[in-house]
Amino acid sequence: MRKPILFAILALTFACKEKPKENVEEVTEETVDVVQEPEWTVLFDGTSFDGWHFYNGGEVMEPWKLEDGAMVLYPPESKPEGANYNLVTDTEFTDFVLSLEWKIAEGGNSGIFWGVKEDEKYGEPYLTGPEIQVLDDERHPDAKNGTDRLAGALYDMVSPSAKAVKPAGEWNAVEIMINHKTNEGHVMLNGTKIVEFPVEGEGWNELVANSKFADWEAFGAFKTGKIGVQDHGDVVAFRNIKIKEL
After folding, report:
1. What is the pLDDT of residues 59-69, one digit of tens each?
2. What are phi and psi of 49, to 5 degrees?
3. pTM of the entire structure?
4. I need a surface site. Which of 2, 18, 87, 184 has the fewest CB within 10 A?
């Protein structure tokens, strides 16, 4: 009689151990949601200007060149009146994180735009697109015109909260987030968050009203627009450009 009793006890013990496992697996399958992170899309891979063109123009050519995996602007000493060599993406974006590196020449000035609208009535990207400043803070005179003109600033609107820029001739890593869903924008420069701002509504309107853009009808008016990099007449380079749509 001992063996049947022993077998019964073992069977009961095994069943008790297995049941909780089944319940755990069942709950896991029914309740856990898999959240997928947005993927990065390369906007410039260092080998071609595919995906970019001159603002209100065509195929990218001189004075832009490809050098060591970067797009580099070598502006001519003189250019035809009204000509510009600003570049914009072929694609428009609304909510995103933009990541890239920039390097400015000594005494140089440039910028990164978003929300750019192409139209012949707008001669420059800055007429529609807000700008994140690219600057040699030590040498360019615009740095003396206010802290909202320093490298990394939301130009003429929000000053950097910390000095994170590297000197002219060195690469700076920047991340720009624009999210209309949460009404948030920020700039991270070399790993430090230096600028935060609303991207629409009362807060944004107040920033514009207190800037040089107050009377510019189309400035910041387009939630969806192109990414652009600026020809300000100085040597500047950009590389490792990628975007993650939110």
Report:
1. 999 999 999 99
2. -95, 20
3. 0.85
4. 2
